[in-house]
Structures are given as C-alpha cells and as structure tokens.
Amino acid sequence: MVSVLFVIAVLAAIFVGFNIGGSSTGVAWGPAVGAQIVNKTAAAALMTGFVFLGGWTVGRNVIETLGGQLVPRSAFSIEASIVVLGFIGLGMLFANLYGVPVSTSMTAVGAIAGLGMATQQLNWAVIGSIMVWWLIAPVLGFWAGAFIGRYLYPHLDRRVAIQQSAGPLLVLDRSGGVPRPALGPGTTQRELLSTVVVLVIACYMAFSAGASNIANAVAPLVGGGLLNASEGIILGTVAIGLGAFTIARRTMESVGNDLTDLPLLAATVVMVVGATITTVASWLGIPISLALATVMTIVGLGWGRATRPSTVSELVRGESDTSVTVDTLTAEAGDEVPKIGEEAPEDVKPVQTLFDPSTVARFVAFWIIGPSVATGLSYLTFRFFLL
C-alpha cells in the first residue's frame, strides 16, 4: 500500500519539476521563440523530449552527487525529502513569479546543504568542489564570449549571419504528382540552414537543462530509496514537461523579447557556450546554473566585440573606452573585416544597452539570495524542528 507521505514526496518532486520547466524552458527556447522560428507549443514539446534525453544520460551523474555524495543517502528520510523539495520548489516559484530564470541547481544544493549541516553529515569536500565550479562557470562564460566577440564574431556575422525573410520558411509544392516541401517565398538555402542550426542548438540547450536540472527535482527521492534513478528521471521529465507547456510561456516571452535585444547569431553563440559549460559540469556530476553561464556569456560577447578597435596593449594600459551594447553586436562587418586595433570606434560604439542593468542585477541578486535563504531555512528547520 502506498503511504500518504510517499504521495506527498512525489507531489513535492512534481512541484519542483514543474517550476524547473517554467524557468529552464525560457532560457533554452526564448531566443528561438522570440525570433518566431518555433511557436511556444512546439518549443515545449521539444524541450520535454530533450530534457528526458539529457537526464537519462548525463543527468544520472548529478543525481548521484545530490542524492548520495553531498550528504549520505541515510539522511534522506521521507520526511527530510519532502522538506528539502518544499524549500527548492518554493524558492523557484517565488523567482518564477518575478519572471527570473532562477538557478535551480544552486537552490537545491543550498537546501540539501542545510540538511547536511543540521545533521552534521555534510560532505565539505563535495560542497567545496561544487562552489568552485559556481565561480568557474561565469568566468568561463564571460571569457569564451569575449574571445568569440573580439576575434570571431565579425567573421561569423559576415559569412553566416542569420537573416529571416518574410513569410513561411517552407511551403508544399503541389505542382507534381506528390506534394513535396519547398522553400517559401524569399527563403534562401542559407536561411533554411541557419534556422535548422538554431533549432538544433535550442535542443542542445534543452539536453543540457535536463542533464543538470532533473536531479534537482528527484535526487532526494532517489537518495532515500523511494525511487530508482530511472523512475526518478521519468517523473522529473513529466513534471518539467508540465511546466514547459504552461508557466514557461511567460519566461519564453521574457527571455525572448524583454531581457535583451540580442541578434539571432549572437543568441546562437551564447546558447552554445552556456549549454556546453553546463553539460560538461553535469558530466562531472556538478549541479550548475545554466542561466548563470548564459548571462555572463552575453556580457562577454558584447565586451569582446566592443574592444575590437583597441589593441591588447591598449586594453592592458586601460586606454580603451568600451561599452557593451546591442549596436556593438549588430555593427555591420562590411565586405572586409578590419584587423584588431584598426576598426573605427564609431563602427561599434553603442547608443543602446545590450541588456537592462537592473534586470541583470536582479538575476545576480536571486543567484546569491536564493541558495543562501534555502540553506538557512533548511538548516533551521532540521536543527530545531525535525531532529
């Protein structure tokens, strides 16, 4: 017979996964939806499928870290699992209501760390390695974006710029005996290929989100022996899918249209870098924030593009005046890309900001406050009420 506590624990995991779907789907599919390459329903369906694939493969390593290495499996009683999942879900719900792609992984680590400190079973070596990666990821994102923006982006913009024509991408050609797909009016082979690339990269982002985030919803249940890893992954996928089809519509709109006016090429670069950092960390068993790496890559990409008029020696001496802006990333490269230090400053100077500083400040504040509050509340609850 299924116990009431088991049902509550499963519902708590579904609640967490539901909110993960709301947050992560916006990060993964916001640019593609904002560019009208795919609609929100199709984005949610693709998100669900690739989240499952990421969780079933790489995500098992993260489940093992959160469900058995950060604290011993014996710490995850059914009551403890419910409380930990409750803190994770409430923290995410609060952030989703404010339209912020919250760091689910950081919140989950904080809630589990609070349990470990209260029971004096926290593995400090594991938490230390996780926090080191939390520092490394945004630095990697920034400098990867900066390198691409400074040395590669103008060449990419000239050769593979993603441009969209009016009207449908594909149509059915009924001139023959059997209807077959054909390019729409004004659609070029280059546009079709670029669109396919954007869709593939969004699927890659969804894969990395599943690899990192499914564990946040089900690791306590798997660690406590209430579910095995495969059952947990299936449960987490269903819950994330529910969030993707419902509350993610708001976050897709927010990320695709409100956070930044990134050109589609720049958004594609950012997605590749952010997803790669997250996937590598997940393969190593490190729960990490996809949003954290993504936002810092945006900043680095704009900064790198803005520094092209300056040589390295001028940057070292502080003689360069650079600003990170949309115009920096939309500056026309022309027929020839100028060499570093020879590009005219007025060609990349900004008049419009790349991102709203207050929005980024709110994101960073949630990344700091969310895990801190989750850790504190979890510790106090287990220390004074449940032990």
From TrEMBL:
GO CC annotations on file: membrane
Pfam families linked: PHO4
Give GO terms: molecular function aspect only. phosphate transmembrane transporter activity
InterPro entries according to UniProt: Phos_transporter
Q: Which domain of life is it from?
A: Archaea
> Which processes are annotated in GO (biological process)?
phosphate ion transmembrane transport
Give the subcellular location: Membrane
Give the record's keywords alphabetically: Membrane, Phosphate transport, Transmembrane, Transmembrane helix, Transport
Membrane topology annotation:
Multi-pass membrane protein
Into which family does the record put it?
Belongs to the inorganic phosphate transporter (PiT) (TC 2.A.20) family.
Enumerate the PANTHER family for this protein. PHOSPHATE TRANSPORTER
Question: What this chain does, per the record?
Answer: Potential transporter for phosphate.
| Name under which the protein is recorded | Phosphate transporter
**From which lineage does this chain's organism come?**
Archaea, Methanobacteriati, Methanobacteriota, Stenosarchaea group, Halobacteria
